[in-house]
Backbone:
């Protein structure tokens, strides 16, 4: 058990948790967003991050501090918290990013962890090797071995009560990501960043990001707090949380602001293209687009950075609320419509339905049918698994139209796409309290047909009739021949 | 031509326009939201509506004023603007709502319009008959006749420079809605409310709302400003604007606040269920959920009303920006995932693709493939119409994989679901600059196959080969037999 992380609530593979950071004396509620502070360029005063934006944790780079003479001296003398003027928890990166970017750095895991400890970091990071996507297998494996050694070195350092990250690498090889996750979870380290996903996100490869995280999660234990390292665009928080990520960090808020870019939950806009501000944050409430454009460069950058942070933290709160309400997958549905690559990400998430099904709550908020993709949700899978275990009477009518006034069946069950049939006794239980569109779709009909098949195959001797509202050929092809079909769409429409 | 309404920009059937309200000396930019002010209960000081929320127009009820002694006297003496303390444009309702609710009112169109003129209303309303959904045909027709007479009476009143509403009724009968629209457009009245849609929205019948508005729009002229009367939930603005609605009015912000309800762009939450405020408006920025709950009743109601207005106006700005960016249908996609009934509404909108196609811009922002529904968008329809007019060489390869290094075809065209084939020369033109998911879907493949069919049927003598990425049976069934098929998904994957 990792006793500094406690899960309070969950939905899909997402959860609300509490990460205790003993050295800071701070408990960070997750999902959490850690603003990235470049110790050389302060876009927003770190002190304001906690009081105005609710950031209980931030992340800065100990490698930059160590290699910058005056920062190093001040950090060692005053401590990191005074240096930054921030009283929340501080995570420090190790220089792995610089290693990946420039090919070499002049510090070992032991040295950088001791330095992080000495400057008062609350969560330190060893020097892992971020292998980029699509690297050769051999390179990915040898990098992973170096990361494994870095984790072993990290375990040997006396870090006091500083928590330590155990990064999970493995490029785009699911088996390597899973193995790396298993090895990281076997250490006594504390927080588990999934690394080197930034190039995937920069390339809008959200489906690859999903597969990498899902593989890492298969290796990690459920009680491991997981950090999606370098992920700070609010567009993808819901998706990443639904996979089981707990921590995010954003340099995007500042980097985008520098380029005149304005974040939204469905993408990034150029300030110069905005005629109407689609936001009510204090910055957008008090300014017009022209007013923002007319501000002096530094002022504009800082205003944009504040907007970007507001929309980012707003989305973190929205994701937490969705977990509380049990409608996180509904939020993922909405975010999937922000960009085609996000839809790829959602479709990839649904490829991992078996894992989602295992960890998802059995009962939560009302299930909403919101798309063809909804038919692939874990709740549908779970209902079909249940159908395969249900006994039915000798003669059963499964009907989309409810019970006929006069019939000779032993029982009548309702049929609701995408779930399929269910006995009356289950109709008030989750997920069968679902709200689904009146105008159903082929995917929902097909899933309902698969439910009928599961039931019929589990009860080969039963005489089952299906009364449907004009299902398409694809759905009807999934119904076993033993089931009698009645198309009631014309007589009952 | 209706010279007080000018269309500045458009997308799908939605538009950004300017409604000149001469009596107020105010130009209202549309889409616009008119907060409803109950003259007896002021939840928010009307003066703040313009300065803080940007509301250039509000709506209040002249019938309530006329039947409340002290309000009537003050309105006649001071004028409506001083009575409310509001210097924007004021629209007044007539008592039709009370008529629908209580069955009778004691005022005629002529009387109420003269009263509205006398108290200084900027946009008046006759006494039309709001026929509820699913009313009998006979009733709907006789109500419509009464509304037609009310419009004729209204035309006869000397209203000075007050604009006058010409409501469009007709219950759930598309032909009556269309006829009512045609008759309203034939008057010299000014603004065109589509009436009696509130019961549809209260019943989450967004598809019926879509059909009613689409029918009314068929009868109205394109230059008629259209008011979706009683529609104030931000969830449905994008959908209604995409249909061609320009004005909305919200009593919801205040009524919901009274019941402790908190609006979002994807639905309504109970304040008591909220643990994290999913919003950054000034109210949500300065309060916690507990803080809001702990406020005194009146204070809480007023804070909630302000939040509700912020999120409402934010969505109006977002819709305008989407029209400017040419991605209004992408916003409709997102909003359709707020509730299954909104998805029904979007699916219903796509039933009117022919009309959308006629009014939509030929070129705009990048088309995003965001769902199975995207395959039914007007841009896809238009491309297929174009394919049916294109000439092809004697032998043509249509390929999802680009041009093979070695081939004997006269030409090679790209194939992109949901559009289908297109010649290289069109690949930089809208909508073929589309971004679509890598993980395509059956609906997109099927639409692409219909594109192939359109091309093949227009060129019966051409020798066409289709190289596809493993399309499903449904899509392949739509490809004519004359087309040679090559499944490259296994050799090229």
Residues:
């Amino acid at each position: 058990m990792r006793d500094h992380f406690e899960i309070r609530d969950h939905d899909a593979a997402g959860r609300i948790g509490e990460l205790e950071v003993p050295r800071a004396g701070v408990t960070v509620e997750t999902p959490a967003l850690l603003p990235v502070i470049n110790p050389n360029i302060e876009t927003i005063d770190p002190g304001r991050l906690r009081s105005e934006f609710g950031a209980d944790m931030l992340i800065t780079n100990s490698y930059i501090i160590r290699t910058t003479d005056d920062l190093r001296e001040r950090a060692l003398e005053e401590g990191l918290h005074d240096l930054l003027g921030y009283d929340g928890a501080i995570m420090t990166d190790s220089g792995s990013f610089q290693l990946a970017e420039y090919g070499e750095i002049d510090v070992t895991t032991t040295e950088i962890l001791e330095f992080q400890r000495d400057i008062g970091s609350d969560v330190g990071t060893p020097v892992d090797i971020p292998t980029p996507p699509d690297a050769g297998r051999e390179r990915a494996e040898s990098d992973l071995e170096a990361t494994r050694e870095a984790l072993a070195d990290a375990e040997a350092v006396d870090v006091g009560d500083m928590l330590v990250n155990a990064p999970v690498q493995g490029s785009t090889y699911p088996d390597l990501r899973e193995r790396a996750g298993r090895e990281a979870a076997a250490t006594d380290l504390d927080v588990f960043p999934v690394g080197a996903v930034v190039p995937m996100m920069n390339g809008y490869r959200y489906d690859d990001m999903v597969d990498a995280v899902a593989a890492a999660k298969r290796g990690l234990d459920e009680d491991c707090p997981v950090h999606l390292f370098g992920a700070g665009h609010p567009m993808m928080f819901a998706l990443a949380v639904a996979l089981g990520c707990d921590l995010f960090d954003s340099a995007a808020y500042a980097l985008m602001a520098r380029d005149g870019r304005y974040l939204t939950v469905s993408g990034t806009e150029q300030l110069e293209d905005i005629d109407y501000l689609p936001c009510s944050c204090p910055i957008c409430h008090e300014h017009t687009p022209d007013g923002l454009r007319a501000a002096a460069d530094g002022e504009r950058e800082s205003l944009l950075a504040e907007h970007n942070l507001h929309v980012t933290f707003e989305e973190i709160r929205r994701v937490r609320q969705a977990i509380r309400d049990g409608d996180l997958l509904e939020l993922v549905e909405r975010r999937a419509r922000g960009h085609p690559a996000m839809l790829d990400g959602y479709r990839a998430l649904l490829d991992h339905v078996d894992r989602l099904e295992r960890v998802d709550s059995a009962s939560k908020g009302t299930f909403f049918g919101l798309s063809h993709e909804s038919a692939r949700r874990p709740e549908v899978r779970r209902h079909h698994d249940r159908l395969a275990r249900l006994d039915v009477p000798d003669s059963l009518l499964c009907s989309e139209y409810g019970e006929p006034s006069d019939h000779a069946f032993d029982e009548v069950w309702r049929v609701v796409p995408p779930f399929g049939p269910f006995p009356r006794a289950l109709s008030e239980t989750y997920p069968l309290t679902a709200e689904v569109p009146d105008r159903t779709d082929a995917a929902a009909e097909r899933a309902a047909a698969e439910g009928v098949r599961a039931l019929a195959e589990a009860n080969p001797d039963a005489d089952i009739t299906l009364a449907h509202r004009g299902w398409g050929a694809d759905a009807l092809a999934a119904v076993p021949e033993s089931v009698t079909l009645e198309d009631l769409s014309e007589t009952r429409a």
